[in-house]
Structures are given as C-alpha cells and as structure tokens.
Specification:
By secondary structure, the protein is an alpha/beta fold. It contains 11 helices and 9 strands. The strands form 3 sheets. A 5-stranded mixed sheet has the order 7-6-5-8-9, sandwiched between helices. A two-stranded antiparallel sheet has the order 1-2. The chain starts with a strand and ends in a 14-residue tail after the last helix.
C-alpha cells in the first residue's frame, strides 16, 4: 500500500508469498513477490521517502533483500504482528491478538514499548489458532470413534469433509504433505458450524480457544500496561469469524473495565503505511484506504 504526502492511498498491489527466504530459491521468490506488488500498485521504479514492511518470521533474513529492491530514505523492516497492531489501532497504543492458522498477541504502549506473547508455532504453542482448533476436534473425533470419548458430530463431519473413511484414516492423512498446516487449519470453519448446530464438544473447543486467546492477550497487555490504564484490544484472523468464540473472547477481555475491545480500524498493509509515515517523521491521517483481502 503506497501513500502520497497528503496521506492519500495512491496504489495497492498484491504478490505471492515471500517467507522462508533462507531456502535456495528464497531470494528469487522474495524479489518476485516484491516486483508483483510494486507493479500492480503502479510504482515499480519509484523512490520512496520511507518504506515499512512486516514479515512472518521477522526481518533478520529479509532486510538486505528489501534494500536491494526498494529505494527509500528510511526503512522499517519488521514482523507481521507489528504492522497488524498499527493497522488495527490506527497507529495508537493497544494490543492486537491474531488467530489464523496459529496465534500471537502483540502490544505497544504510548511510550513505544512493545511486548508479545505466544507465536511459538504449531508444535509448542499456537493455542486458539485454527490448526489447534482442528487438532482438538480430531482428538475428540478419534476418542469418539475408539469408544473412550463422548459421541460428537465432529467425527462424521470431519471424515466426510475430507473424503476419508474414518477418523483414524483422516489422522494419517493429516500427517502427510498433502495436508500442510494451512489446509488442516481450514477445517476450523467446520468446527464452528458443528458448534452452531448444537454439538457440545465443538462448542467447548471454541470456548476453550477463546479463553486461551484471552490469556495470550492479557499476557502481552500486562507487560506494558498497568492494570488501571485504558487499553484498546483488537483482533485479526479467521478464527475470530466464529461468533461463539468472539463473543466469549469479548466477554473475557471486558471483565476488566479498562479494556475496550474493538474491530480493527485498518488491515496490516495500512498499518505498514502508518509506520512508514512515522519513520518519515510525519503523522498524517490516511485517506482513501481500500479494503484489504
């Protein structure tokens, strides 16, 4: 997302993924994604006053490639949670919790101090994220199938949706390369549907995820805000599309009256643009901001 000196968005472009740049094809893949974005935005050969880019996995292995492709006076090369927060709060202090495939909470206070909690990956963390929701659902389905857990609609729904023959068959499919984490996490929508159909176990999984996400949020908040300070809490990611989960999350967060849970003002790309203006030493309200997909 590119803005002019008045804060007006004048271009937006989208490109393919560019993480895992340490792999052999990483540099070429990264530069192709940058080129796609700049070309679609209409600023392929521009010189910028400032550029902010937020990446999954952070900046350490990407900073040099950014500087190779994008010419700017000021650079902020950071991680995705940073720009997600800037977009969600419009650049103001607060905490954002992201629950997509995985989960993480990130906050920044008025003094510029930041803190995070979670984001440990699917093996050691990502509680409340889409992959974890589906993991819990499949565990419930397996227990039901083997007779040592209560009956649940999750079993037949998961098996049918994946075209598997049994929960055990689906388990083995999920261990193959055919089902990367993102594909597994996509079944979280099914968990929400089954919960809305009245399945007790599916609902319990969503409510437990809301509790875990609230715990992440509170952990990040406690590191940089005192208990009496007002704090804007926002949220991003497909998991929060579940009304059951989001309602419980809001309730848990607003048990503390100083917390205010609010929809994101902007998406992460607009957050990066806000931080680019900040890096250039100016504070300008954004104008003509298109929706982010």
């Amino acid at each position: 997302m590119i803005g002019d000196e008045s804060g007006r968005v004048v271009g937006i472009g989208r490109g393919g993924p560019c993480n895992h740049v340490g792999k052999a094809e990483g540099r070429g893949k990264f530069l192709r994604a940058m080129n796609e974005c700049l070309r679609e935005a209409g600023f392929e050969d521009a010189q910028f006053e400032a550029a902010c880019l937020g990446f999954s996995g952070g900046a350490a292995d990407k900073d040099a490639y950014v500087r190779e492709r994008i010419e700017a006076k000021h650079y902020v090369v950071t991680y995705d949670a940073f720009i997600a927060l800037a977009g969600a709060t419009g650049g103001e202090p607060g905490v954002v919790t992201i629950a997509g495939t995985g989960s993480i909470a990130f906050g920044r206070n008025a003094a510029g101090k930041s803190a995070r909690s979670g984001g440990w990956g699917y093996i050691f963390g990502d509680e409340g994220g889409g992959f974890d929701l589906v993991r819990q659902a499949l565990r419930a389905a397996l227990r039901s199938e083997e007779g040592w857990g209560p009956k649940t609609l999750l079993r037949d729904a998961l098996v049918s949706s994946a075209g598997a023959t049994s929960a055990n068959d689906l388990l083995h499919r999920f261990y193959t390369d055919e089902y990367p984490r993102e594909r597994v996490a996509a079944f979280a929508k099914l968990v929400d549907r089954i919960a809305r159909d009245g399945d007790v176990l599916a609902r319990e999984i969503l409510l437990a995820a809301a509790q875990q996400l609230a715990t992440l949020t509170n952990a990040a908040r406690a590191q940089i805000f005192d208990g009496r300070s007002p704090c804007r809490i926002s949220f991003l990611g497909g998991v929060f599309r579940s009304e059951i989960l989001l309602t419980r999350y809001r309730m848990l967060m607003e048990l503390e009256t100083c917390n205010h849970v609010a929809e994101p003002i902007y998406g992460p790309a607009a957050g990066a643009l806000i931080e680019a203006y900040r890096a250039a030493g100016v504070t300008i309200p954004l104008k003509d901001v298109p929706p982010e997909k």
